[in-house]
Design goal:
Elements: E1 5-6, E2 11-14, E3 26-29, E4 42-51, E5 65-69, E6 96-101, E7 117-124, H1 126-133, E8 141-144, E9 162-165, E10 168-175, E11 186-190, H2 195-199
Antiparallel strand pairs: 1-2, 2-5, 3-4, 4-5, 6-7, 6-9, 7-8, 8-11, 9-10, 10-11
Keywords: Disulfide bond, Hydrolase, Protease, Secreted, Serine protease
Subcellular location: Secreted
InterPro entries: Peptidase_S1_PA, Peptidase_S1_PA_chymotrypsin, Peptidase_S1A, Serine_Proteases_S1, Trypsin_dom, TRYPSIN_HIS
């Protein structure tokens, strides 16, 4: 399972490394508890997946994908279309951003909750992130973490989910070494770097 963001009535956004056959995918909006019917859910099949044409499976560069939905997802009291940033406009370093998903909540072992979780983690500079990862951070990536402290992060199962900063979706959960380690921040696709790609379709 991967997370995502609803961009419009017929498109959602996720990570390219979540790509699989469109016919096998279902996009569900406003599902806050996987074990119960919240009464707010809207579901759609997927007509096609549109991973970025330059997605690199080795480096995870350009790890972004659009999903064309087969039926309409409408706005409601529980569903709002994602606000996106302007092209190449990013939050200031140190901004607290909110990451949400159903991923593993255990640093050691595994604990996958039925309820949607969220955590606030500060944005760090790409220079600091590159120092941690030995040069593996590209312009289309951004990093969140508590360097030297750890304890807050996205994890396995959160892939493709949203990173919300200042009311806009600035990131897509992509990769990292472990989860919430002090020396390895989480790495996310920088949405502002891909606005022209998104605007081709949405």
């Amino acid at each position: 399972m991967c997370g995502g963001s609803i961009l419009s009535s017929n498109y959602a956004m996720s990570a390219a490394h979540c790509n699989t056959a469109a016919a096998s995918l279902t996009v569900t909006a406003a599902d806050f508890d996987l074990s119960a019917n919240d009464g707010t859910e809207q579901a759609s099949g997927v007509t096609r997946t549109i991973p970025h044409s330059q997605y690199n499976t080795n480096t995870l560069e350009n790890d972004i994908m659009l999903l064309q939905l087969s039926s309409t997802i409408s706005t409601s009291s529980s569903v709002q279309y994602a606000n996106l940033p302007a092209a190449n406009v990013d939050p200031a370093v140190g901004t607290n951003c909110r990451v949400s998903g159903w991923g593993n909540t255990a640093i050691v072992g595994s604990n996958y909750p039925d309820q949607l979780y969220q955590v606030e983690v500060p944005l760090i500079s790409n220079a600091d992130c590159n120092a941690a990862y030995g040069g593996d951070i590209y312009d289309g990536m951004m990093c969140l973490g508590l360097l030297g402290t750890g304890g807050k992060d996205s994890c396995q199962g959160d892939s493709g989910g949203p990173v919300e900063c200042n009311g806009a979706i600035h990131g897509v959960v992509s990769w990292g070494i472990g989860c919430a380690y002090p020396d390895y921040p989480g790495v996310y696709t920088r949405v502002s770097h891909y606005i022209s790609f998104i605007n081709q379709y949405v």
